[in-house]
Automatic annotation (TrEMBL):
One of its GO terms (biological process) is DNA integration. It comes from Rotaria magnacalcarata. Residues 1-100 form the Integrase catalytic domain. This is Integrase catalytic domain-containing protein. GO terms for molecular function: nucleic acid binding. Pfam families: rve_3. PANTHER family: PROTEIN CBG26694 (PTHR37984), PROTEIN NYNRIN-LIKE (PTHR37984:SF5). InterPro entries: Integrase_cat-core, Retrovirus_Pol_polyprotein, RNaseH-like_sf, RNaseH_sf.
Length: 135
């Protein structure tokens, strides 16, 4: 894990979190498992909002069958972390790393133009004619 093992994890009461396997896993790695209060949005409303945001972003980038969502996750995460969040007015990347992110557009080099050889078109036509004759 990038930032270490969490001390505790708060989940809803879904069967995938209440299964004996999860209880055993949390016990083995020393994580306290906390459950949210059902129908109490103040407990986990923030993460539910985050999940809705991420779901929408992943759905936008994924293929029609949504079978490549895991390949889109790094791009979605980068987008989320480099966007200004309206609630804080901040960019999470800057809060974590203390600097602005380097975006793909920042990496662009100046445009390079190539001069055109006036004889290129004629040479190309001759080459195509030669190939046509050989065929």
């Amino acid at each position: 894990l990038k930032y270490g093992t969490p001390k505790c994890i708060l989940t809803d009461n879904g069967t995938h979190f209440t299964a004996a396997m999860m209880t055993e896993l949390f016990k083995k790695i020393g994580i306290t498992h906390l459950y949210s209060t059902p129908y109490h949005p103040m407990t986990n409303g923030q993460i539910e909002r985050f999940n809705a945001t991420m779901d929408a972003k992943i759905a936008t980038l994924s293929n029609d069958k949504h079978t490549d969502w895991d390949e889109q996750l790094p791009f979605v995460t980068f987008n989320y972390n480099t966007s200004i969040h309206t609630t804080t007015g901040q960019i999470p990347f800057e809060l974590i790393y203390g600097r602005s992110p380097i975006l793909p557009i920042d990496q662009q080099q100046p445009l390079v133009t190539l001069s055109q050889d006036p004889e290129h078109k004629e040479k190309l036509n001759q080459y195509v004619s030669t190939l046509t004759e050989q065929a």
